[in-house]
Design brief:
Elements: H1 9-27, H2 31-39, H3 44-62, H4 65-70, H5 74-98, H6 103-131, H7 137-166, H8 168-188, H9 203-206, H10 231-236, H11 245-250, H12 271-279, H13 288-295, H14 299-327, H15 332-340, H16 344-360, H17 362-372, H18 386-418, H19 424-453, H20 455-466
Helix pairs in contact: 1-7, 1-8, 2-3, 2-8, 3-6, 3-19, 5-6, 5-8, 6-19, 7-8, 7-16, 7-18, 13-19, 14-19, 14-20, 15-18, 16-17, 16-18, 17-18, 19-20
């Protein structure tokens, strides 16, 4: 696959599932705003709310899902999130066919899809870490990144053609079907997923739970039936001594043949902690991901850097549409070409990520490429009309996307290596929630600034602020924490 570095059949299914859903997403790129405008005759405020409010509320809904998913097997969660998105998106063409489609339904579906997307991404990172050894994570993330940019190149043109021929609702159907195919692909990965690790001990479970410590006499000296006062349990009760062979070997229900007491019965082993933790989910648990990120000297600056960078880049995109399609008079196909064609840079960058890390080291690549990617966006403020302006946008986007193509798989791998297995889902969920919410907030703020200062000035301001984001990159080379790897099937 790709570079010839084999990652096994299970990763192949996961990779195929990812590519299918990514292609479906890009096929339906812009479908919701078009449906709102063409079908529901929505105004600018409603269209802006569809993209910003839907993402923000979806991020809020996803907050409790990170701790909830942490102590559950990740593959069923991934399948469930794909099926949730499939079902939610299918309500759009169904309501359209029945003539009952409303703007509120579009908004609710966008919230559900955003929340499921955050949860899926968090769970997929944790699942990937159990699927592959640490030395293969960079290769895997680079392949996923290259798939992202490949689908970015081919998806929007195909989606635009489909919208022109069949209407925007048809691309929503394609997007929904892609999630169904993704669920089937993840299910086909098969194999034995390691059980979720138990929650780290909390003060309540270390001190306030007498049944596990001193306060339970029947487990210590105050229960004679467990100690000296029970001679019948020392010698007269053969069932607890020599005659307990049926519990050691002769009784399969307590050994291999009884799944309810061993591996095959999650309800008595892995799933029992899941039920207890789900039942005891506390308000403080919702903040565990952020606590870990902010306490880690390497993840903390990287968290602020990537969140601010992504939010500022995305906040300027609507203003670029206003500038190019409005004041500068570019055609829609020219606007699409300006942002789709440079995605080839992301494909090239993701291919170079592993060789660069091998030669220069992970931290050096993060700092250098993370700095270079911040230098490009300010050039968009100088976009002019005609062919020159179009080439300027394409050149800026090519440089930006190339740097992102290198940076993204390296930082994704670095983040996974720095995060213990029992914290991955909470950490990635907190990261994604913050990114979604900050992007929605800054998009709204830059919309106001665009109205007050003009789109060109607001775009330039975003570019200038991006120049400061390298200051938030990790300054020291923190060696990622490597954990013992559980046995994995590479079939």
């Amino acid at each position: 696959m790709g570079s010839g570095h084999r990652l096994g059949r299970r990763f192949g299914w996961l990779w195929g599932a990812y590519g299918t859903s990514a292609l479906g997403t890009w096929l339906a790129f812009g479908a919701f705003p078009l449906i709102a405008i063409q079908v529901l005759h929505a105004g600018p405020a409603e269209v802006a709310a569809l993209s910003s409010v839907g993402a923000a509320v979806g991020a809020a809904v996803a907050v409790p899902l990170g701790p909830w998913v942490e102590f559950r097997r990740k593959r069923p969660v991934l399948i469930a999130m794909d099926l949730v998105r499939f079902a939610a998106l299918l309500t759009i063409p169904a309501a359209y066919a029945l003539g009952t489609l409303t703007f509120l339904q579009l908004l609710l579906v966008s919230v559900v899809v955003a929340a499921a997307d955050i949860t899926f991404r968090a769970a997929s990172g944790a699942y990937l870490k159990t699927l592959l050894p640490a030395e293969d994570l960079l290769v895997a993330n680079a392949r996923l990144e290259s798939t992202t940019w490949t689908t970015t190149i081919i998806g929007p043109p195909l989606g635009g053609a489909a919208i022109g021929l069949l209407g925007p609702v048809a691309t929503v159907v394609a997007d929904a079907v892609s999630y169904l195919l993704s669920a089937l692909g993840i299910r086909a990965t098969g194999g034995q997923e390691p059980p979720p690790e138990r929650r780290e001990a909390t003060p309540e479970r270390r001190k306030a739970a007498p049944e596990h410590r001193k306060a339970t006499p029947e487990h210590r000296g105050a229960a004679p039936e467990h100690r000296e006062a029970t001679p019948e349990r020392r010698k007269a009760a053969p069932e607890r001594r020599e005659a307990t062979s049926e519990r050691r070997k002769a009784t399969p229900e307590h050994r291999d043949a009884a799944p309810e007491h061993r591996d095959a019965a999650p309800e008595h082993r892995e799933a029992a902690p899941e039920r207890r933790e789900a039942a005891r989910l506390r308000a403080g648990d919702l903040l565990d991901g952020w606590r870990y990120i902010l306490a880690d000297a390497a993840l903390r600056p990287l968290f602020f850097n990537t969140t601010l960078f992504n939010a500022l880049v995305m906040a300027a995109q609507p203003l670029m549409a206003v500038l190019m399609l409005g004041r500068l008079g570019f055609e829609p196909w020219q606007y699409g070409l300006a942002f789709a064609a440079p995605s080839i840079g992301g494909l090239l960058g993701s291919r170079l990520a592993r060789p660069l890390v091998t030669r220069y080291g992970q931290h050096q690549v993060l700092v250098v490429v993370g700095t270079l990617r911040a230098l490009w966006s300010v050039g968009l403020a100088f976009t002019g009309p005609g062919t020159g302006g179009l080439l300027l946008v394409m050149g800026v986007e090519l440089g930006l996307i190339f740097c992102c193509g290198v940076f993204n798989p390296v930082y994704a791998t670095y983040r996974l290596e720095r995060t213990p297995t029992d914290r991955v889902t909470r950490t990635l969920s907190a990261w994604a929630v913050t990114t979604k919410a900050s992007t929605a907030l800054l998009t709204a703020v830059w919309g106001v600034l665009g109205g007050l200062l003009g789109p060109r000035t607001a775009i330039g301001l975003a570019g200038v602020l991006l120049l400061a984001t390298p200051l938030l990159l990790p300054r020291q080379d923190h060696t990622p924490q490597r954990e013992p790897e559980p046995a994995r099937s590479r079939t």
